[in-house]
């Protein structure tokens, strides 16, 4: 019996001018004109999140074609990583060049969903640039990694407005990727890839040879 060949769909790719035009290319700070660079990106079916060199997070809602802006309080520093999550509430985690990590719980117009923007800050465990972020599917756990090899676990209670963070793993080289599922955290560094079992606090290295 001949196999059924699925139809080929052609798509055209073009710059997202409607998004880029909503982000300034320069800002004025005192007498100085500062160029705005786009430094981080994440997308899902609801949002496009863009981090910038001026510490501003630009969040574009794809359903209502509206851009919103969020920033860190205090000094202006580059955003290095953003990670979106859609669960019961819409969440976005943001990491910066100095190691600051914040979670924004977004406002939703849907009944029973969050009606007030809230921000949770990860305690100052990271001291260097954030290079990876990973959510649990329910939004109650966030893992963050930095370029010094530290991995921090943050437990979020969105109802109580609480975020408790602790250092769970420290590698000798920079973290380049994190992914979490079923109580197992996949960690990739510049030297190796490993599985970290969060319940047992045990590590299982993938492969035997270090990366070149």
UniProtKB/TrEMBL annotation:
GO terms for cellular component: cytoplasm. Pfam families: WD40. SMART domains: WD40. GO terms for biological process: protein exit from endoplasmic reticulum. SUPFAM superfamilies: WD40 repeat-like (SSF50978). InterPro entries: WD40/YVTN_repeat-like_dom_sf (IPR015943), WD40_repeat_dom_sf (IPR036322), WD40_rpt (IPR001680). This is TCPR2 protein. It comes from Rhodinocichla rosea.
């Amino acid at each position: 019996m001949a196999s059924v060949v699925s139809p080929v769909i052609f798509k055209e790719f073009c710059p997202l001018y409607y998004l880029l035009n909503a982000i300034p290319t320069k800002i004025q700070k005192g007498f100085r004109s500062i160029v705005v660079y786009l430094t981080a990106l994440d997308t899902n079916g609801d949002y496009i999140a863009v981090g910038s060199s001026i510490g501003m997070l630009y969040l574009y809602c794809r359903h209502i074609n509206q851009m919103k802006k969020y920033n860190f309080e205090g000094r202006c520093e580059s955003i290095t990583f953003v990670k979106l999550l859609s669960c019961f509430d819409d969440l976005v985690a943001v990491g910066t060049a100095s190691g600051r990590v914040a979670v924004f719980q977004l406002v939703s117009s849907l009944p029973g969903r969050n009606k007030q923007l809230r921000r949770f800050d990860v305690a100052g465990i990271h001291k260097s640039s954030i290079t990876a972020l990973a959510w649990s599917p329910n939004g109650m756990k966030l893992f963050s990694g930095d370029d010094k090899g530290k991995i921090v676990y943050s437990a979020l209670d969105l109802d109580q407005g609480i975020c408790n963070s602790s250092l769970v793993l420290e590698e000798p080289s920079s973290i380049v990727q994190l992914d979490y599922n079923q109580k197992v955290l996949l960690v990739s560094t510049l030297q190796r890839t490993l599985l970290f079992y969060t319940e047992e606090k045990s590590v299982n290295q993938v492969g035997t040879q270090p990366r070149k």
